[in-house]
Amino acid sequence: MINRVLIRIKIIQIVYAYYQNGSKNLDAAEKELFFSLSKAYDLYNYLLMLIIAVTNYAQKRIDAAKSKLAPTVEELNPNMKFVENKFVAQLEVNRQLTEFSTNQKRSWANDEDFVKGMYERIIASDIYKEYMESEDDSYEGDRELWRKLYKTFVFNNDDLDALLEDQSLYWNDDKEIVDTFVLKTIKRFDEKNGANQPLLPEFKDEEDQEFARRLFRRTILNSDYYRHLISENTRNWELDRVAFMDVIVMQCALAEILSFPNIPISVSLNEYVEIAKIYSTPKSGSFVNGTLDGIVNQLKKDGKLTKN
Fold first, then answer.
1. Which residue numbers delimit the NusB/RsmB/TIM44 domain (predicted)?
2. Beta carbons of 296 and 305 less than 8 angstroms apart
3. For residue 74, what are the contacts with CB-CB under 8 A and spacing of at least 6?
């Protein structure tokens, strides 16, 4: 689940903190990097659990209505389609998600007000109304409902972002990327797999784990050389006048360009220019792009850069 985009972002954040905190313990910083990545995987599981929490809240509302002293006919005979959603029923018994909930002791129980608010927005939506009125009772239809609801009510939800940030500072920048993996998971669910439906793994493979470890260490251990290259290509600027985040982004980019011959230079450049646009100054994208382009061209000219 943790892709290289997220790995790059986390490395830049940890390297930035490494220098800002005056730390000289590389092993401790590497441990912090992998802990930070593991928290992103926790968020993935936690957001899947939100789907179950909303459905359980809907059941709770139905039970409360039936328990009134004088329930209406409609309250006694509610439409159960939403709470009996086949995709959610499968998700609720998923072995991996159940194990996560048990081991991490996480639930949405302490945030029922948020769950309530989300449920009320859902039932007021056309997506919900069309689903409840539809005669389609297929698993595929139930799964598609939650793909639509997630995109509509979980994506770009400022209240949810604030709630998650209060729970973990590590989740501050993770949600946008993690959301895409939750949607991918919903799409991949297959009824025939039952409780054994695999969730996305924390890392795609050992190669990505090694990519994270190697990139992080090269970024710091070869920092003097990378900063020399940056300084040589920003001669109209003193290095201490360049935004510190820009230096970190370029340092990490150079570590990747020089250490991973199988990654095309254009891929590395595009990734770090985009990161600079988001995490540094408004002009950082063009500045980082121009500086790295100059360094790459010089390295090629000097025969110091080879790519497969």
1. 204-296
2. yes
3. none
